[in-house]
UniProtKB/TrEMBL annotation:
Pfam family, one: GMC_oxred_N
SUPFAM superfamilies recorded: FAD-linked reductases, C-terminal domain (SSF54373), FAD/NAD(P)-binding domain (SSF51905)
PANTHER family on file: GLUCOSE DEHYDROGENASE [FAD, QUINONE]-LIKE PROTEIN, GLUCOSE-METHANOL-CHOLINE GMC OXIDOREDUCTASE
Protein name: Glucose-methanol-choline oxidoreductase N-terminal domain-containing protein
InterPro entries: FAD/NAD-bd_sf, GMC_OxRdtase, GMC_OxRdtase_N, GMC_OxRtase_C
Organism of origin: Daphnia magna
Keywords: FAD, Flavoprotein, Membrane, Transmembrane, Transmembrane helix
Matches recorded under Gene3D superfamilies: FAD/NAD(P)-binding domain, Glucose Oxidase, domain 3
Membrane-crossing residue ranges in chain numbering: 6-25
Family indicated by similarity: Belongs to the GMC oxidoreductase family.
Superkingdom of the organism of origin: Eukaryota
Length: 613
């Protein structure tokens, strides 16, 4: 639990009075606030018009939009519970992983990637809570590149071009930055989702943007006309608190009579008639009891890129031979769980500075910082876990013809060694020997890092069942760097990151790359491509954006699982609405796109049932 992690540290006991105060103010504020907590459904009917599985980034939106139709009723099923006071604090994001609100997935052992992590595996946190992964995430608000969506459309996904999806990004948005919101062609105000910059940044953030300008990039809004460039982070942030999709889309409508939200409800199976192939009901477990509830119109699967394919396979929709090997009767043979794409990056670079600007734990959990956050929602705890800047840059491999960068930078005013070794090393699964040798010597110094992230991986992996038991985690194999070009692009991105440290903007702060040799890479000549390749293969950090496992495609595409209306091929009354439908992962972070997918799907469902029937 986050609380035991905080209070487990004796040096933090001094913070206790501040936490108590925070807790008291928090409870009185939240209880009386229009955004107040959601109560668990007391009754569950035997039948609803729609059943939505998963209250994450996309599912929360769908539940909201469908219950705008007052004569429809909707059951929203979520395996986790409601948010609490720790999830609200942006600066405490590192404390959320590996707790009960995280599915705590791990990939299978990778070959040629994740070599610096325990068992050569990557930890894959996923939100198990109302709001889903939007509760565990770093809150960065990013939409991707125009060309992503135009490419989807060009592949036969009619209605998904950039011009088609832009209105849905705008519809959700309540942008509170007057300069950004003024660009009304790209931004919206008055939507459910609050977007603004964090209430706190260190001076390193400004240095990052300055450094980018020095390198010839523009300082611009990467969510508007042009993506290439450097910017301060925009975030799903409301008055210094996290704005999850549960807070944005569910709390304001939690008293709608036609919406039942059932928490701690773990879905086991979607019941599909093997003859008519109509999806008719959902089976789930809640507090030890099994329920089976019918859907009159449709079942919407919004369980995310790992659990949506798992659930389809458990229900008899997936690769036939694979399902048969677990004795699951095959209802529809589809390539469910293929096409897994994730954003891999180099985590763990370390640059030191000689100014007191780093986001260190000692600056986060102090009495003044806690008081400031409690009273004003300000100070270091209002930062996005130290993630302060974003940039999209071009390596030598990027298409020179236009605005289609191949690397995204996450600029962080800290490193895995900035938190006294308390959370990040364990969240990422860093091996003890590597921690001791490479990170411990610089622990809690003033540092920053840039995390170069590969935007469009060529490597694709799979989600497969490990068992027919719905409680057994599926097998996740992203096959990082199985296509070597992914590593080549990331090596070039790393070199641009190193150049950033050499700019005047960072030199003014005494910035230095920490030049210890990364354990396991001793055999390579330092600072050559091979050396960087080895570093990347060791600290191969997921940026938590799995996508593509229930791929959308036209009827001519044998690799598609859903059609451009997000209906599961061959099945009636079943759609998938979440990041798993992306034919290709977008060139950016995936929360805002998941919300957009939820908005667009809701309109498609309404169009089907309100107009033609
Ligand atoms: C640590 C972390 C940091 C991230 N940082 C960012 C960021 O800064 N910016 C950004 O844009 N993106 C970020 N992301 C990614 C982004 O949050 C996700 O892509 C997005 O939330 C996915 O939305 P989704 O609707 O596809 O799935 P989710 O939001 O994961 O929702 C799935 C929901 O379904 C529920 N569920 C699953 N299986 C079942 C079942 N069998 N029965 C009942 N319920 C079930 C889950 O509990 C969950 O609530 C981050 C993700 C993580 C984990
Ligand atoms: C991890 O990968 C390395 C290098 O390929 C290998 O030597 C090692 O045995 C692997 N460890 C595990 C636990 O798979
Ligand atoms: C509280 O935070 C704000 C900015 O976020 C800062 O200006 C102010 O000095 C801080 N106050 C204290 C007491 O730390």
């Amino acid at each position: 639990m986050p609380l035991t992690q905080i209070f487990g540290n004796l040096s933090l006991w001094a913070s206790f009075p501040a936490f108590l105060l925070y807790y008291l103010l928090y409870s009185s504020f939240e209880m009386n606030d229009p955004e107040g907590f959601i109560t668990d459904a007391e009754t569950i009917l035997t039948e609803y018009d729609f059943i939505v599985i998963g209250a994450g980034s996309a599912g929360a939106v769908v539940a909201n939009r469908l219950t705008e139709v007052s004569n429809w009723n909707v059951l929203l099923l979520e395996a986790g519970g409601d948010e609490g006071m720790i999830t609200d604090i942006p600066g405490a994001v590192q404390l959320l992983q590996r707790t009960s609100i995280d599915w705590k997935y791990r990939t299978v052992a990778q070959t040629g990637a994740c070599l610096g992590f325990n068992d050569n595996k990557s930890n894959w946190p996923r939100g198990k809570i109302l709001g889903g992964s939007s509760v565990l995430n770093y809150m960065l608000y990013v939409r991707g590149n125009k060309r992503d969506y135009d490419d989807w459309e060009a592949k036969g996904n009619t209605g998904w071009s950039y011009d088609d999806v832009l209105p849905y990004f705008i519809k959700s948005e309540d942008n509170r930055n007057p300069y950004i919101a003024a660009n009304t062609k790209y931004h919206g105000t008055g939507g459910y989702l609050t977007v603004q910059e964090p209430a706190w940044t260190t001076p390193l953030a400004a240095a990052f943007v300055e450094a980018g300008v020095e390198m010839g990039y523009e300082n611009n809004d990467g969510n508007a006309a042009k993506q290439t460039g450097f910017m301060l982070a925009q975030a799903t942030n409301r008055r210094g608190r996290r704005c999850s999709t549960a807070k944005a889309f569910l709390r304001p409508i939690r008293n709608r009579q036609n919406l039942h939200i059932s928490m701690h409800s773990h879905v086991h199976k979607i019941i599909i008639d093997p003859v008519t192939k109509q999806a008719t009901a959902v089976r789930f477990e809640k507090k030890g009891q099994i329920y089976q509830v019918n859907a009159k119109k449709e079942i919407i699967v919004s369980a995310g890129s790992v659990n949506s394919p798992q659930l389809l396979m458990l229900s008899g929709v997936g690769p036939a031979a694979h399902l048969q090997s677990f004795g699951i009767p095959v209802i529809e043979d589809l390539p469910v769980g293929d096409n897994l794409q994730d954003h891999i990056s180099l985590g763990g670079m370390v640059f030191t500075v000689n100014k007191p600007f780093g986001s260190t734990e000692a600056r986060y959990y102090t009495l003044p910082a806690l008081l400031n956050y409690t009273m004003n929602s300000a100070g270091p705890l209002a930062s996005l876990g130290g993630c302060e800047g974003l940039a999209w840059v071009n390596t030598k491999y990027a298409d020179p013809s236009g605005d289609f960068p191949d690397i995204e930078f996450h600029f962080v005013s800290g490193t895995p060694a900035s938190d006294s070794g308390r959370s990040i090393r364990f969240n990422n699964g860093v091996r003890d020997d590597i921690w001791e040798k490479y990170y411990k010597p610089v622990m809690d110094k003033d540092m920053w890092q840039v995390i170069p992230m590969l935007l469009r991986p060529e490597s694709t992996g799979t989600i497969r069942l490990a068992s027919s038991d719905p409680y057994t985690a599926p097998l996740i194999d992203p096959k990082y760097f199985s296509k070597i070009q992914d590593l080549n692009v990331l090596i070039e991105g790393t070199k641009i990151g190193l150049a950033l440290g050499k700019t005047e903007a960072f030199q003014k702060l005494g910035s230095k790359f920490y030049d210890a040799i990364f354990p396991g890479c001793e055999q390579f000549t330092p600072w050559t491509d091979d050396y960087w390749g080895c570093f990347i293969r060791h600290y191969s950090q997921t940026l938590y954006h799995p996508a593509g496992t229930c791929k959308m495609g036209p009827s001519t595409d044998p690799t598609a699982v859903v059609d451009p209306q997000l209906k599961v091929n061959g099945i009636q009354g079943l759609r998938v609405v979440d990041c798993s439908i992306m034919p290709n992962v977008v060139s950016g972070n995936t929360n805002a796109p998941a919300i957009m997918i939820g908005e667009k799907a809701s309109d498609m469902i309404k169009a089907d049932w309100l107009v033609t029937k």
